[in-house]
Design brief:
Blueprint: E1 6-11, H1 35-46, E2 51-54, H2 66-70, H3 81-91, E3 96-101, H4 108-121, E4 127-130, H5 148-166, E5 174-177, E6 182-184, E7 193-195, E8 200-202, E9 216-219, H6 224-233, E10 236-239, H7 245-261, E11 270-275, E12 278-279, H8 283-293, H9 298-312, H10 336-343, H11 352-360, E13 372-373, H12 375-387, E14 392-397, H13 401-408, H14 411-417, H15 430-434
Parallel strand pairs: 1-2, 1-14, 2-3, 3-4, 4-9, 9-10, 10-11, 11-14, 12-13
Antiparallel strand pairs: 5-6, 7-8
The structure holds flavin mononucleotide.
Length: 437
């Protein structure tokens, strides 16, 4: 059995002001230009990573709270990751590039055509992180936002339609026979007449068929409906879960079951568990960092409050840290799941300071309580996951070269020596590399 694991990088906070709020900003990289991302994409490829996923949200959220979102650049601005992808393909040869796309924002024909074009341009290295966020609905028409499960239903219809368009050229439709002067055979093209619940459109697609394979579909939803979507459609599932054996095994079993229920094989879905290592030089330094995290300073608490204010579209920075948090301050549209994640197990009398401090708390890689540890301890974690049958992991961060090198410089040689990280890529693009082991 191979020990090799797949590695992905999740460009959190999307195609936005990278380095803002950290000293890395002083490097004067221009986040609106491609060079910053190209430099790091080359490093990820050299490190043997399969794919780079670019987070996105097309909206700055509710009109009343835009300042909270942009003030510290937590919720925007964000440029369109689909348009960054060609620059990253041009800078690399093997790396898969996976912009996030929301079906609400693209008509199926436009989507099929643009993604087909990128798949050809990149020699089969495109992936699509399909998300179903409904908060941005008002930017794409007057219809009210769909409910949670209906948004997944629409995403499945959209993807089915996109795939029908990709498959609208039958075997032999592309002739390219110079001797007979025939480029294509229109009688072998399927008309595609889609009349569904959410979309109506005709084909066939005017882009030529793929040389190897369709773009890889990636999905991050963790609800029952989200896992069913992954089982039915995804080549890669991004998983948020505790990293103990029971949780990992249970999560994988749910995806595999969902795949089987939709007539697919468990091996069709590569599951990547999210990990966010904070790498340090020694176990003693890890202990120091973890101990210090129990007593966060005011600046750390303020940064957490700012980030939460952006995510929750509610200004926590103006509140008294030593008073209990009144849940009535959250408007109706704020996600209940996000409020629960903020508050955790604390009761109504808990001061805001304690709630925020819990978010500063770090744990050790070595005892499974968190992600602070040495490169060797990180490799131990990857090795444990591999022994439980895991497919791979997803590292989080911005794509600033400072972040990428801090994470990878020491860890890559150790993972290679232990046979956990690929030495080379196979030909055939992203899907071929995902299924190579
Ligand atoms: C690793 C990971 C990455 C995600 N990336 C995005 C993203 O880029 N854009 C987005 O709108 N939602 C993103 N999400 C959120 C999911 O798409 C989804 O909205 C959320 O998980 C709720 O769906 P669920 O109810 O099925 O879990 C991400 C979630 C995870 C775990």
């Amino acid at each position: 059995m191979t020990r090799l694991q797949h590695f992905g990088w999740f460009l959190a906070r999307g195609f936005g002001p990278h380095g803002w709020g950290t000293d890395a900003w002083e490097w004067n990289h221009r986040w609106t230009r491609p060079e910053l991302y190209q430099e790091s994409a080359r490093v990820l490829e050299q490190a043997g990573f399969d794919l780079l996923i670019i987070e996105d949200a097309p909206s700055l959220g509710s009109a009343d709270t835009i300042d909270l979102r942009v003030r510290h650049a937590f919720g925007g601005p964000k440029h369109d990751p689909l348009l960054l992808a060609p620059y990253l393909f041009a800078a690399t040869q093997h790396l898969g590039v996976v912009p996030t796309v929301n079906p609400a924002a693209y008509l199926p024909y436009t989507a099929a055509r643009q993604f087909a074009t990128l798949q050809h341009l990149s020699e089969d290295r495109l992936g699509l992180n399909v998300v179903t966020d409904t908060g941005s609905a008002r930017h794409f028409g007057a219809a009210p936002p769909l409910g949670h499960d209906a948004a997944y239903d629409r995403a499945e219809e959209w993807l089915g339609g996109v795939r029908d368009l990709w498959r609208s050229w039958d075997e032999g439709a592309l002739v390219e026979d110079v001797a007979s002067g025939r480029y294509a055979d229109g009688t072998r093209m399927r008309p595609v007449a889609h009349r569904g619940e959410y979309f109506a459109f005709d084909g066939p697609l005017n882009a030529v068929p793929f040389e190897h394979d369709e773009p890889a579909i990636v999905s991050p939803g963790g609800s029952g409906r989200g896992l069913a979507f992954a089982g039915a459609n995804s080549d890669v599932q991004l998983a948020l879960s505790p990293l103990d054996e029971a949780s990992i095994t249970a999560y994988r079993a749910r995806i595999h079951q969902a795949a089987l229920e939709r007539g697919r094989s468990p091996e069709d879905v590569t599951i990547l568990f999210a990990v966010q290592p904070v790498l340090v030089d020694s176990p003693e330094e890890a202990d120091r960092l973890v101990a210090a995290s129990r007593h966060p300073d005011e600046e750390t608490l303020r940064t957490i409050a700012r980030r939460q204010s952006s995510d929750l579209e509610t200004d926590l920075t103006a509140l008294d840290l030593d008073a209990p948090l009144d849940l009535a301050i959250f408007a109706d549209h704020v996600s209940h799941g996000s409020i629960r994640r903020l508050v955790g197990d604390h009761d109504a009398a808990t001061p805001l300071r304690t709630i925020l401090a819990a978010h500063a708390r770090a744990g050790r890689l070595s005892d499974g309580s968190g992600f602070v540890g040495t490169a060797d301890e990180f490799a131990d974690l990857i090795e444990r996951l591999a022994a439980w049958g895991n497919d791979g992991v997803l590292l989080w961060g911005d794509l600033h070269p400072v972040t990428v090198h801090r994470m990878l410089d020491r860890v890559v040689p150790i993972l290679r020596r232990r046979g956990l990280l690929r030495e080379e890529f196979v030909s055939g693009g992203l899907k071929a590399n995902l299924s190579a082991f």
